[in-house]
């Protein structure tokens, strides 16, 4: 019964993708016209490129900053430094805030309007403004930064848990052998964290492929379509243009992208074992 509960919506999306169904019409027919339209549309391939840049830039940066913060917190706890709990709570605040609110917050921070906080200080110092959100060259980078700010907390949690599983005896033995902090990091921490890092990469990638609420609130996919990722395009196609069939095609493509990532991870785990 539980399998049917999860399987039925997936089957329905596949079925709708083989139709020309619209939300404002009751009559529809079966065929592959929706696939032909989506795959032959140049905008689709441009959107896919934007999505890939957004996802993998976000993933690597979240992993990088998450690892740095998790390592600093873990090292602080090993040395009994005060304030590590406060740092964890501050970082976690970004994760618990809904994506739409994060989009609004970063819009307030980066906007060129009078309420834009960052541009206020830039204009004060340099008598100019930077088009963080209205420039097609900068908007995607702004969206990536906002997403990394939010997602770094998730990476920190996963990696912090992995760090706590590493035996203290390994570090003590390395210290006796005269290993430096960097030696211990690259020869003990990173190898021991390898499975956790890979799990983190997969989870971030899948989650980021499905991110659209933060982008919708921050840029709406603009300027033009320079920040419109595939998940946001699904929303716009179905609820903006009422094209359920074409939106389902995009959902099927996104499903197979996520499935491929999952299978890649599974094969990696099997090979490691």
From TrEMBL:
User: Which Gene Ontology cellular component annotation is one that this UniProt entry carries?
Assistant: plasma membrane
ABC transmembrane type-1 domain: which residues?
Answer: 48-265
User: Where are the membrane-spanning stretches?
Assistant: 50-73, 85-109, 138-160, 196-218, 249-268
Q: Which InterPro entries match?
A: MetI-like (IPR000515), MetI-like_sf (IPR035906)
Q: Which UniProt keywords apply?
A: Cell membrane, Membrane, Transmembrane, Transmembrane helix, Transport
Q: Which SUPFAM superfamilies match?
A: MetI-like (SSF161098)
Record CDD domains: TM_PBP2
Q: Which GO terms describe its biological process?
A: transmembrane transport
Localization of this protein: Cell membrane
Q: Where is the signal peptide?
A: none
Identify its membrane topology class. Multi-pass membrane protein
Name the Pfam families for this protein: BPD_transp_1
Q: Which family does it belong to?
A: Belongs to the binding-protein-dependent transport system permease family.
Q: Give the protein name, as stated in the record.
A: Carbohydrate ABC transporter membrane protein 1 (CUT1 family)
Please name the source species: Halanaerobium saccharolyticum
